[in-house]
Amino acid sequence: MFLDFYKLREQPFGVTPDPRYLYFSPGHREALASLFYGIETGRGFLSLIAEPGMGKTTLLFQLLQRWKGYVHSAFLFQTQCDSRELIRYLLDDLGLKSDGEDIVRMHSELNDFLYRETKAGRRVVVFIDEAQNLSDSVLETVRLLSDFEAPDKKLLQIILAGQPELSERLSRAGLAQLRQRIAIPARLEALAPGEVVRYVQHRLQVAGYEGPDLFSSAALELIAKSSRGIPRLINNICFNALSLGCAMQKTQIDATVAKEAAQELSVGLAVPKGVDSQPRETRSVTASLRSSMESGFRRMQGSFLGRRLLSMTLLLLVIGSLGIFLGKRTRSATLQPSILSGLNSASDAGSQVPESPTERHLLSSVTGQASPEIRHAEAGESSIKSFTYVIQPKDTLRDLCMSMLGRYDNAVLSEIRELNPDLKNPDHLDVGQEIRLPVSATN
Q1: Which of 213, 235, 264 is the last residue of a domain?
Q2: Would you say the pTM of this structure is higher than 0.70?
């Protein structure tokens, strides 16, 4: 294990959704702010769309952690189910007893529970992860859950989280009613190369690394290209690179080690130009199959029947190759950002910086109690774009800057001082204190 070798407290590139390791890229900050705003204002239906490995589950856990104590929540993972099973899972996660048979009775129990929680001043939020697996009939059941409402508010907040297939499903005509109810659609996009560098540094710092740069700039560049900016793939490559580096007694992961780590995971990865994306084992198997096929073709050429079989085999190979080519083209088109939206102009509107005073609440990224807003320069004010954060227990300015801005240095401190002229001691923050932080750090 490389923890002792690199002096790490814990494994920095794990696969479990640990909120401590959530890196607030600009896209993550905007998505988290959108979901906070939707819950805070009782919008009813929200959605979060992201490719596999982008950290949507981790983001949802972060949202749960920040709302802890203020909402009664249920988190549903079992999405390959029918409507009755979904309601039973929901009641069980909310701590309600149910026989699981009479769906009418289950609806009545849920309705009574929602009224009791609302009367007690608590919100009820349901997170449905991997929602793309829900059948159309179950999605319709989810839509009907939003009918639980009082005259002046929704009794239940629902967040649908899923892969791009979810937005494609919601774009169908048969699900128009559900799509129209989604007040705030949020999306997570792949990290830019510069964000990949800050993402890796952030995870290393959370894991307790305090030495010189553990990954060389060339290694980080290769990791960014190989992973396509997808956090899960970044984690896998970095974990492999650290394991290899430890075995080779390398104190820094260079491009050679990173390249070998990426090659071991090259199936499904966009390995950079110049990197052989086919593992040695695969090359040997492919060569053996090619040799066997060529020998068989030569034997078949000796007879009329053989020639006929050869012609048919070649035709099938051509058809198969064409199918694979078209499949790749279709998949490529599916992954284009314009197709990923699936929610048409509503999705684009949800990802823009709000202009109305009410919608500026979107830019809070940390607490349901805050009334955050993107600040625009007024006469005599700083021109730095910022948002307001309410200090939580155990918060430090360094941790906030590293998680939200990816860095903590004199330039960032200078911006924070400019935004907060009354901040006397950056090393001492009081719980409940409001502080303005820059949306992004300048170089």
Answers
A1: 264
A2: no
Contact 301, 131 (CB under 8 A): no
Residue 270 identity: A
Measured CA to CA in angstroms, residue 349 lies from 186, 355, 387, 414 at distances of: 10, 11, 20, 33
Q: Count CB neighbours of 386 within 10 A.
A: 25
User: In this predicted model, what pLDDT tens digit does every residue of 35-65 receive, in sequence order?
Assistant: 888 888 888 899 999 999 998 888 888 787 7
3-state secondary structure of 438: strand
Beta-bridge mates of residue 186? 48
Q: Is residue 272 part of a domain?
A: no
For 182, the enclosing helix (H) or strand (E) is strand 182-188
Coil, helix or strand at residue 362: helix
Domain hosting 219: range is: 193-264
Please say whether the beta carbons of 54 and 190 come within 8 A. Answer: yes
User: 140-199, pLDDT tens digit by residue?
Assistant: 999 988 888 777 778 899 999 999 999 999 888 889 999 999 998 999 999 999 999 999
Do residues 140 and 178 touch, judged by C-beta distance below 8 A? yes
